[in-house]
Specification:
five-stranded mixed sheet, Nucleotidyltransferase, domain 5, 248 residues, 33% helix, single chain, 7 helices, alpha/beta
Length: 248
Amino acid sequence: MKIAVYVDSSHEIARFSQTGRVRLYVRAGYGWTVADEIPFPISTDMSLADIKAQLAALVARLPGCQTFLSGEVRGLIYSLLQEEHGFRVWKSSGQPEGQLDDIIQRDVDLAVLREKEAAEQAFAAAFSSPSGGCSGGGCSGGGGGRKRSEQALQAIQSMTERVADGHYRINLSDILNKYKNANSMDILVPLMEGPLREGTTYRSLEILCDHLPRWFSQKVSDLDLTAKCVTIDGHPGGIRATVSKAHP
């Protein structure tokens, strides 16, 4: 683990507007050691080209480091660190040594949050209806949402759980709770239209949900499927709908 810290002459965390240098801290056992001290003569009076050149030279001396601690987080230099060099920048003051473990934990938590947000955005981009007319557990109408790429179809299929040979399950409630921009139609229709048709390995699909979408019954009929719906014991309002071909 590595943290770059901008410090002043008293070795306290400083802003780039103050004279200072960058210290590279490296985790060693249960503590931290200073692996490098890098002069960093930079100011907002410099041209953009000069600032970028100074930053590039600094980053070259920080291999494997993506965490930066400073006395400020706003401004051109901090934006360039984040947007062009991929650093996560944190603000603090005082002596850095006693804060480094906390900064690393905050950094890890932020990385996890950003990964989750990226996954949710990717899901929404792949599966949400372009009209925005479907949300939560229900849509009106009988058609699917937007045209889906092969990658999107594979992603939908990967959400299913194999419970027996040819029998699969998908927990629609969990997916909709996790991905707020998703909708039931864009998730279920590709499974109902494709894998359940003749010549595929799917024989039935269990759908766990809080309630059946309004479009569901009509779509089952249109695709010549059958659906058996029961209430799940111990889960008030919970429904299991098992979809299969009407004429095997």
